[in-house]
Sequence to fold (327 residues):
Amino acid sequence: MTRIHRRKFLKLSAAGAVGTATGGVAFAADKPAISVLYAGSLATVMEKGIGPAFMKATGYGYQGEAQGSLGGAQMIRDHVRTPDVFVSADPLVNLQVLMGPQNGNMVKWFTVLAASQLVLAYNPQSKFAAKFQDAAAGHIPWYEVLETPGVRFGRGDPSIDPKGYRTLFLFNLAAKYYGRQDIPKLLGDTMNPAQVFPEIALLARVESGQLDAGIFYKHEILVHHLPYLELPPQINLGDPHFSKMYAQESYTTGSGERIPGAPILFTVTIPEAAPHRDAALAFVRFVLTSEALLRQFGFGIVEHSVGGDSNAVPAELRALTSGVFKP
Fold:
């Protein structure tokens, strides 16, 4: 049974100016500003929480930029961006787009940072809000609400955004879980222009009422105070116990990389070309030791396992990591 949640989110206060998701810069007194390229779903988390908290704790400046993880990784590989730190919404983005000689060894290691899950969020002023509430109470299936004529539904772009291809996984898994093979047809074509939007635009459209509902990560919805329905763990990509089930799904990128379904994990790494290494080390250390902060933003806490070459992890960070990431 799905449930509805309306939580008051604990806002963090921090001294100093804050950058913006489009690249605004906030400088501390006498240290350089670190450049962090991060998954678009983290925009509010980074710009209103982690970024200012990092500045306050360390004295470094901060500059953040939100991009779809897949698109951001492609920018790094193609030398369009040279960030000090890259935070991805999918470990496989590092493995398939940034690591190995075929990708110029742009990244040699990463560590798992936190976990999340997919939820169905909706605008509380939508004329269909009562139907979403009925679904939350278990009176009707959530997918039947999406079948209602006139419902405007949005999702991420699978060509640049892990949330986009994870939404495809969710609907395919739902078809099997509910025994309704027509559920994926609710999405139309993979790149259906009536549904597919960049991450930040998607959230803005649901908040403004241009869309009635969309698929998001749980942490996004908590910080934006939207009502949402939790989905069964068998389909929400948030429970490692169902890894084998998730792995039945896959998405092939435009450049031919096959990305299988897996539990949702966020990762952090320092690219080899990072221009401000000391600042990058300070930032990664900060986020790996900020479990309370991550919990406040709705993330699941996980082991900081390492992907790639564990010997390449900076010595200053090794004590904060443990285990080996296995796709």
The first strand starts at residue 4 and ends at 5. Confidence is low (pLDDT under 50) at residues 1-26. The chain has two domains: 16-115+264-320, 118-252. The CA atoms of residues 122 and 230 lie 12 Å apart.
